Amino acid sequence: MLQTVLNINPERIAVTELFGSIGSAPRTTEIIRMLRAIEENKRIRALVIDIDSPGGGAGASEYIYRSVQKVARAKPVIAFVRGMAASGGYMVACGATKTVALPMALVGSIGVISMRPMLYEALEKIGVRMDVTKSGRLKDMFSSFREPTPEERQKEQALLDAFYDRFVEIVATARNLPADRARELATGEVFTAAQAKESGLIDEVGDLDAAIDMAQSMADLRERKVTYIRPHRGLAQRLLAGTGASLVEGAAWAIDARLRERRIEYRGRD
Fold this sequence. Notes:
The protein is α/β, with parallel strands linked by helices. The protein has a domain at about 5-110 and about 185-265: 2-enoyl-CoA Hydratase, Chain A, domain 1 (Alpha-Beta Complex), CATH 3.90.226. The protein has eleven helices and eleven strands. It has helices at about 1-10, 25-40, 60-75, 90-95, 120-125, 150-175, 180-185, 195-200, 210-220, 235-240, 245-260, and strands at about 10-20, 45-55, 55, 75-85, 100, 105-110, 115, 190, 205, 225-230, 265. The strands form two sheets. Strands 1, 2, 4, 5, 6, 8, 9 and 10 form an eight-stranded mixed β-sheet that branches. It has a three-stranded antiparallel β-sheet with strand order 3-11-7. The longest helix has 25 residues, at about 150-175. The protein starts with a helix and ends with a strand.
C-alpha cells in the first residue's frame, strides 16, 4: 500500500521562477504564499529558484529573501541565475542554500538607491502650485514639489546607509564572508558569473540542469523528478500572459513608485 502511494506521489524537486522587477504588492504576496506552501509540502524535497531580476523595492526584496531562507532551513534551495540577479534579485538568492549562475549572467549590484522626479519647475511653467498642509516638520521630506532641505538630505542619506548596512550584513552572513570583504564587493556594480564565483558571491557556474542536479544530490533523491510551480495569477495576469504581462506590471509599478512617493530600492540596472 505504501509503495503504491509513493509511486503515485514521488518525492520531487520543485522549480519556480523570479522574473522581472520586485515590488508589486499582489505579486509579492503570491510569491510568499507559494514559498510557504513549498516549505510545508513534505513531498517536495528541494527547491530551485530560476532568477532573472534587476531587483526592486527594499521591503519586498527582503520579505522574499526571508521566505526563501525559511524554505532553506527545511530543505535544500538552489538559486539559479539565468540572466541577472542584481540588487534585490541577488538578495533573494542569498536566502538559498547554494547559488548557480550561467556564464553570461550578471550578479551583484549590492547597494541601495532612492529616486524621485522633481516636478516643481515643470508645474511652475504651467501655472500649477502645490499647497501643502502638514503636522510634523519632516512629514513631506520626500516631496517632489520642492527642493529638499539640507536636513532632509542628511536624514535620507542616513536611511539609505541603514538599508545598505542591512544588505551588506545579509550578503556577509549568506556567503560566509568577512564583513569588510562583503562591503568591498558592495559597490553597486554587477559581476560576471566567473567574477562572482571567484569573489564568493555564488557557488558554481552552470545551467539550470546543473542547479537541478545539485538540488537532487543535496536532497539525496534517487530519482530526478521535477515539478514546475508558479505563483497564482489573477485573471488580468493570465489574459496578459508572457512578456506583455511582465512589461505592463513592471511599468505600472515603476510609474506608481516614481510619482506617488519616494521608494527606497535594492535595484540594479534595468
